[in-house]
Design brief:
heterodimer, A: mainly beta, 6-stranded mixed beta sheet, 4-stranded antiparallel beta sheet, 0% helix, 52% strand, B: mainly beta, globular
């Protein structure tokens, strides 16, 4: 069974500063990796995904993430955050050979951007 | 507009009073799923459906039922709600059950059981 760890439950950062949200996963098979964002009072929407190929993936709103197989990590980064990036961010994995689109989520990281 | 629609968005009920949260998608997706979101626990899968008349348990199915009689609808039924089912519920769908497919989420249904 797969699992996802997001060690930081909250990350405060000033506007225009860089940010990294950490995600580590555990799985005995190959995985697909996702970052979803949840703005206040909304559902989740996809930021970016890693399926195969280049380990650096770019998503919407200037976010990017790097898949590191040896460290089983998929950290999310943005070089300069904006107030509108304040939201909760979820890392998620699904197994390549799994059925039922079993997406396992981390516990989420609340990003709070301050002026 | 392609979307997943959940109703009601907010509901307060009492212990034991049966309720149904509806979910409908207009994207002709085969796969649908229900999650609950609780503080500090992230999202946990309740039930999923790989196609019409095919449903299966997720990680936390106790106290819930689902049905998939039509491709577009996937209602979540709480036969006898209890306070530990107070949560934020999300319905999601994807084209197929294959793991690479991106899930489209509804806006959520906040349920309080007194």
């Amino acid at each position: 069974a797969q699992s996802v760890t997001q060690l930081d439950s909250q990350v405060p950062v000033f506007e225009e500063a860089p940010v990294e949200l950490r995600c580590n996963y555990s799985s005995s098979v190959s995985v697909y990796l996702f970052w979803y964002v949840q703005y206040p009072n909304q559902g989740l929407q996809l930021l970016l995904k890693y399926l195969s190929g280049s380990t650096l993936v770019k998503g919407i709103n200037g976010f990017e993430a790097e898949f590191n197989k040896s460290q089983t990590s998929f950290h999310l980064r943005k070089p300069s955050v904006h107030i509108s990036d304040t939201a909760e961010y979820f890392c998620a994995v699904s197994e390549v050979t799994g059925g039922g689109n079993k997406l396992t989520f981390g516990t989420g990281t609340q990003l709070k951007v301050e002026l | 507009e392609a979307q997943v629609t959940q109703n009601p968005r907010y509901l307060i009920t009492v212990t034991g009073k049966k309720l149904t949260v509806t979910c409908s998608q207009n994207m002709n997706h085969e796969y649908m799923s229900w999650y609950r979101q609780d503080p500090g626990l992230g999202l946990r899968q309740i039930y999923y459906s790989m196609n019409v008349e095919v449903t299966d348990k997720g990680d936390v199915p106790e106290g819930y039922k689902v049905s998939r009689k039509e491709k577009r609808n996937f209602p979540l039924i709480l036969e006898s709600p209890s306070p530990n089912q107070t949560s934020l519920y999300f319905c999601a769908s994807s084209l197929t059950a294959e793991g690479a497919n991106v899930l489209t989420f509804g806006a959520g249904s906040r349920l309080t059981v007194l």
